[in-house]
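As a warm-up, study this chain.
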Amino acid sequence: MPREELAGEVAAGVVFWGYEDDGELLAVMGIQGVGDVTLIRHAYVRTRCRRRGIGGRLLAHLRTLTDKPVLMGTWLAATWAVSFYEKHGFRLVTEDEKNRLLRKYWSIPERQVETSVVLADGVWFERRDKDCH
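Now compare it with the structure written out below.
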């Protein structure tokens, strides 16, 4: 991510966390409170360090920092990312919910809305189901 983009994300309230081993940064993940939800943003693990549980530990830590529902947006084509979040308890929302959530909580181009998915944690689904009754 270019320095200017990083500065913009930080200015927008994204707080980045990292995972280091012996002084080397192996993974980063951001968390951003937006209204009544928390977004996981910009999750990256060095390619050579994947499948070691690093991303899962970082995600687990970030989830302890909020009691709000947690949402994650990613590209539909990023099947590895979708699988990662599903493995950690997130579920895909419906197409209609995805479109509504992306437009409400993210500032992204319409084309990105069309080519993305949103995954939500159990807290989000519980609150959604409670609000429907």
